[in-house]
Records
---
Amino acid sequence: MTAAAVEVEDLVMRYGAKTAVDGLSLTVEAGSVTAILGPNGAGKTTTIETCEGYRTPQSGRVRVLGLDPVSQHRRLAPRVGVMLQAGGAWSAVRAVEMLDYVAALHQNPLPVAALAERLGLGSCGRTPYRRLSGGQQQRLGLALALVGRPDLVFLDEPTAGLDPQARRTTWSLVEDLRRDGVTVVLTTHYMDEAERLASYVYVVDHGRVLTSGTPQELTSARAQNIISFQAPAGLDTVRLTASLPPDCTVTERPPGNYQVDGLVTPQTLAAVTAWCAQVDVMPEHLSVAKPTLEDVFLDLTGRELRS
Amino acid sequence: MSGLTFTPSPGARPLSRMVRIHAAMETRLLLRNGEQVLLALVIPLLLLIGGARSGDVIDLGSGRRIDVLTPGILALAVMSTAFTSLAISTAFERRYGVLKRLGSSPLPRVGLLLGKVLSLITVIAVQLALVAVVGLGLGWRPTGGVVAGAAAALLVVLGAAAFASLGLLMAGSLRAEATLAAANLVYVVLLVAGAVLLPVSSYPDPMQPVVTLLPSGALAQGLREVASGAGLSLVHALVLAVWAALAAALTARTFRWE
Ligand SMILES: Nc1ncnc2c1ncn2[C@@H]1O[C@H](COP(=O)(O)OP(=O)(O)OP(=O)(O)O)[C@@H](O)[C@H]1O
Ligand SMILES: [Mg+2]
């Protein structure tokens, strides 16, 4: 049996008239890596900061490691590592000095030099925070969340703005956290990140959970295969659909990008190419593929994630 | 590859230890900031030396110039650190999310506050020692012995509490830029019009009660009286205590951490 590390039940959070979180529920199993995926303004940060004890739930219930994040904050704080979406250090403090400081507040901190090295902060250890690049500040924020050897970490967009190599470093770190039994809750805009790291994914938008499951469940709940191709915009998708087996549908999104969903068989593929030949268009980049989390997401939210 | 393992082993250090760690950090950052050092040490010492050497250009009233000047500069040193410096640094801690980030660290809010107090005490002690030594070198002759010393210490503690509460009130409610401007403005205004440089008796008669009720006036005048052997005036102590209590109560109600 695995106990829940985080339980959120029917959380509602408003800023004035604006409802940021609208009856959201989620459960994070101890030892898992759970991703909260959603577009800008979906309510990810608000949810996570409520779990961190920064805000009192206006309605609903939040428990972290079995404790109330607000009233039992002092017991909880040493056990929970927090990486804020931005900021959080004095402008004149040197990177390693900041890490040393937070380490010193903990009983059994990680070795600071090794942690800094692992996150690629070795070369900028004496640089004042305000002169660190955005990515270096981001990695320092991650180091600060980990240095106290927490049971649970909340990482708010840990790889936003990182170069590809730094993203990989962060990914391998998250994999090590899972290996060592640290529970990880992360928010992200990146599908590939959620797909690769998370054992469980919550897709949220407008402050609500749209769907949840393991990445495999989410992708296989949908059509088995997708045919996609590019061609001039404005093809007659109704006529194309009519020429395909009954349960297939064709959508054009964005213009010039066509997608065939449904029971995709070799016959379906043949029918698509036959129709293209008939109207004399070349289906470019024609492919048959398993749907990715990104396809699932677009289906659910109708929105591009990256912005 | 590093053999770093992340196996959980969480725990906070004891509060007293965290408070000392935090105080050391704040003190280090203050010393690293040129403007803050200017405010804390350079300006008070320049005013002390300049004021003592300026002959009769500035009328300091009756009594030996250096005996009027030194207690005022001691009060200025307290004000610069407990009010201006604290207000500005805390406002920027709020602005840069430092307060937010510390909110999820093992250091509780009471520890943060105690750390700030410990840092203030350290810095103010160094300032007062330097100002006093320079003052003595310039001929300052405080009287009253140990009793006067204890009375002065009480005034300094009350004054620092009043100024610190006012500084936090400002830092917790205004934007960082507004705090930067306002804290410096208040510093200059009190320096000139708050009985810091001049004794209360040099102000026009109708202004004297007002000046005495300002925290700067109460602290500087209280220190002048104590150092001249006139003893501790309860009025000055009370004025400072009331400022401290009012500002602290307001700060507790209005301080915004983010
Ligand atoms: N302090 C605030 N005051 C007013 N509105 C806010 C505040 N913080 C967030 N909001 C609003 O609440 C909604 C949810 O914001 P939140 O920051 O939780 O989203 P998010 O999913 O983290 O977005 P992003 O991916 O851009 O970080 C947004 O519409 C945002 O404008
Ligand atoms: Mg966010």
Note: Chain B touches chain A at residues 2, 4-13, 18, 21, 25, 29, 32-33, 92-93, 96-98, 100-101, 103-108, 258 (CB under 8 Å).
---
Amino acid sequence: MKVPLLVIGGGLSGLAAAVRAARFVPEVLIIEKHSRLGGLNSYFYRNKTLYETGLHAITNYAPPGEKSAPLNRLFRQLKLKRKDFSFCQQQQSEVTFLGCESLLFSNDFNLLLEQINSKFPQCIDNFQKLLLFINSINPFLPSPFRSAKRKINEILGDKLLTDMLLCPLMFYGSSHENDMDMNQFVIMFQAIYLQGMFRPLGTIKNFLDHLHRHYHSFGGKLRKNTEAIKLLHKNNTVYGVELKNGEIIECEQMVSTIGLDETKKLLSKKVSPAQPRLGFTETIYEIKPEKTCSLPRDKTIIFYNNSNEFSYKNPDEFVDHSSGVICFPGNFQGIERKEVVEVRATHLANYTRWKSIASCRDEYLALKRRTSRKTVTNLENIVGSFNSNIVYENSFTPVTIERYTAKIGGAIYGSPVKVKDGDIGFKNLFLAGTDQGFLGIVGSMLSGVSIVNQHILAKL
Amino acid sequence: MTSEEVKDLILEIIEDIDDEADFENLKADAPLRDQLDLDSMDFLDIVMELRKRHQLQIPEEDYPNLATLDSCVTYLEPLLKDA
Ligand SMILES: Cc1cc2nc3c(=O)[nH]c(=O)nc-3n(C[C@H](O)[C@H](O)[C@H](O)COP(=O)(O)OP(=O)(O)OC[C@H]3O[C@@H](n4cnc5c(N)ncnc54)[C@H](O)[C@@H]3O)c2cc1C
């Protein structure tokens, strides 16, 4: 069997790449190692309830009519119709550095402007300068790593404001310790502060099912539970893939979405020397709110830091509780209040430590419980008490993420080294998704689309 | 295809790409891009649709010929004369 395009990985970038190509050439094939689509943004069941693995909020909100907005361009490229989806915008979100300051922001950029004006009046002119600077940058031009942190601090002249503005952008899209690439900063600033956040009315499963049906309607094929163990190549040209069951699938073109080093390993190529990757834990609490419990109903996401110095790096301990993200998936506009509300929390975590105890099941589970308790204590300081109202909790570690997505070190944002043009030295194999450099749900989907546009379509 | 048919083909393709495209005041000799808010990604779709529907291979250096409705007709009519 020989396919015109083989896509490795059925995460959001792989799905988008495959839909884009299948629009013009059917018989595209996706192979996905797992039994479900979605990769990092998938779902699982516990006690007959569906839980989303990764969805806090989708960035890059745009109203339907704004044709040049990334979200709408993405939809046009995939021939998806906005009217087939109901999107719920965030209420408002907050960056809070405990004991220092807090800033609110929403999908109306004026809120952030007003907040900076009233809380950092000495910085408002510099903030306007920062906006001009952001506007002057084309973040899609390939360029070497430039420190965003240094430049922003230089423009704003205020370390606290710099760190507060960076905090959400780092948590939602930096694969670098304590810094961000300038281009990535501009992309994330636009995606989160200028455009804003939303989520679909249904679950990520509805969204993935819709994409899958759409792909199928163009003639695209999908094989789940199908792991590539070797990419077959000669003279910088790939000609197929060997599957775990020994089967060989031949192809003319290939897009890999599994990561840079992950792909190199399947090519039997040397991988670059290890650089620190960032792991995370995610904890989900189901809470039955009663009179005693007053969780905020108007906040969608809270990014917090409670140490003197905001640090975004691989922690020495298992979990870094000094900062994190708190998400209320029920607090989006137009979502009905449910009897049980969900609270999610994300923290930086040390993969190596979790890995070292993963084989001692009891110890691993006990530690998961302990860190989950510590997370509750930290969260209660910020959102009020809810501990006694928890009816269910579940957490996953970098080891869980590694197991379900095969990402090295369970690092959600992949390698700190990105390959912006997707070119890894092969004539007909290109990289899309996380390690191409666009992160998040909209980012990874745009990555799939743009790699297919740039390198694949003309040759199909 | 006659020049009218080529025109219709292009409009049909654009409508297919963007069902909200507004052809009401479209000027045939002005850039489609500005009038319809299309970007380079959308233009790639026009090229790919022409290939899918009429097996036309349009090389990248010829893309500027698709800038206006008139230039589309001038460029495509000879290529589609037997279509
Ligand atoms: C806890 C968490 C919260 C998040 N929250 C958000 C959020 O709120 N908003 C947002 O925009 N983004 C969020 N993200 C990030 C977002 O999910 C990712 O950036 C995006 O989904 C990446 O997509 P991808 O296709 O590049 O990679 P992946 O999703 O990793 O896709 C790669 C796929 O390849 C498969 N694969 C790997 N190896 C093989 C092989 N050898 N053979 C076959 N298949 C293979 C994997 O199983 C996987 O399905 C979150 C992620 C996590 C984990």
Note: Residues 361-383 of chain A form the longest helix (23 residues).
